[in-house]
Amino acid sequence: MNQINNEMAWKHHLKLASTYKMLADKYEYIDHSLHLYYGGEYRKHLNEVEKYFLAMHHMQHP
């Protein structure tokens, strides 16, 4: 059950990271502050993806 929760969590954060990456790219040459904000959110969600992904990996390969 925990593995399913981890998988759902990292897929959720991956989807958000993808959205924030798209927004950061969109505003890169238009609005620097928005670009930085969305870029920060992108990195934050990538960190969450990595955390959950590593937790799943450690459960499968103790």
Secondary structure topology:
Layout: H1 2-27, H2 32-60
Description:
With 62 residues, the chain is mainly alpha-helical. 89% of the residues lie in helices and 0% in strands. Helix 1 runs antiparallel to helix 2 (32-60). The longest helix is centred in the last third of the chain and has 29 residues, at 32-60. The radius of gyration is 14 Å and the shape is elongated. The mean pLDDT is 88.
Brief overview:
The protein has 62 residues and is mostly helical.
Percent of residues in beta strands?
Answer: under 5%
- Major sheet description: none
| Low-pLDDT ranges | none
Give me the Rg, rounded: 14 Å
Number of strands: 0
Keywords summarizing the entry:
0% strand; mainly alpha; single chain; 62 residues
